[in-house]
Amino acid sequence: MKQDFQKIGKSYATAAAEIGCSKPMLVAVVNHGQWPKKGANELREKLKQYFETNGADIPAGLRNEPEAAPAHPNESEDKEMLLRKATLTQAAKQHFGMVKDPFNDEIQSADDVYMTPDVRYVREAMFQTACHGGFVAVVGESGAGKSTLREDLQDRINREGRQIIMIEPYVLAMEDNDQKGKTLKAVHIAEAILAAVAPNVSPKRSPEARFAQIHRALQESAKAGNRHVLVIEEAHGLPIPTLKHLKRFFELKSGFERLLGIVLIGQTELAQKLSENNPAVREVVQRCEVVTLLPLTDGKLAGYLKHKFERAGGDLAKVMDESAIDAVAERLTVKSRTAKGTELNSLLYPLAVNNLVSAAMNMAAELGFDKVDGDAVRGV
């Protein structure tokens, strides 16, 4: 069929438009004999008509019943597939002349982090909290880059030689109630502070003595020129009582000088817990600034992809065309129904973009495309 198709002399894109199917689907059928699971018979009739219209003999491969491709294991979960992990295959890297995968384990230094205005603001808010005290909550969807900014904060402190002690309580198995997992309580935070500030000191038994001990340890550490920042990841899993107790840690002072800055990092549920409409945490809400990591909308997607390929030694223009970038934005914009009507929600966060583009590059390489185009992205 491939030889007969090439005799007509039309490109796959032109033929796909005439037939009424996507370019990746046409390439898969003509070059590899891979028929779609649904609509295979209808596509066969359209292909027959295409050959007849263009004055070509119908290939033998169209006279037999098409063998449908096996169902994709995630075919019924298209939306979930967008967030599923995907890495570039060796064939895809060779096809596009890439030595390094631009989307997998790619953050090795601060220069690898793409700085949008939103990211730059959040990054600086976290750093100022570490240097001068404060109370900030960083909120973002899964894959928005929150953990990357925490790593960047630690790297920046080390790189600039700042006397800042980062205190990070372990949040393994942390949930906001004891039925689902283990709650992180004020006493656990106190133990983490003491272990970081005065590692050779044994904690007192009684809670009152222990908290007084922590206050003294922070004061002594501050006299030595140290600053302290408490960083809690997965903070959306904090129970309400612990959130309320954080206000008391925040108020630890030596004179007018705050002894502890607090950075909470969590998903959008954290913003709901810290809502001004939640009277249970009103004392925290009045002291905590909530900053949000926004999606790569308003033209930021192309800049993000260009940065990623450049850091990996590649060239975006040689791998993806403009239609592919538009298709990524389209594919990661979903509609939802609300009481006010239909709303558009963007999922253009780094992790989702990385997985979708990687999968599209793998498909394009498998089908022999010179570049990833919009059809390849939509065909993932």
UniProtKB/TrEMBL annotation:
Signal peptide: none annotated. Residues 56-78 are annotated as: Disordered. Residues 132-274 form the ORC1/DEAH AAA+ ATPase domain. SUPFAM superfamilies: P-loop containing nucleoside triphosphate hydrolases (SSF52540). InterPro entries: AAA_22, ExeA_AAA_ATPase_DNA-bind, P-loop_NTPase. It comes from Uruburuella testudinis. This is AAA family ATPase. PANTHER family: GENERAL SECRETION PATHWAY PROTEIN A-RELATED, PHOSPHORIBULOKINASE _ URIDINE KINASE FAMILY.
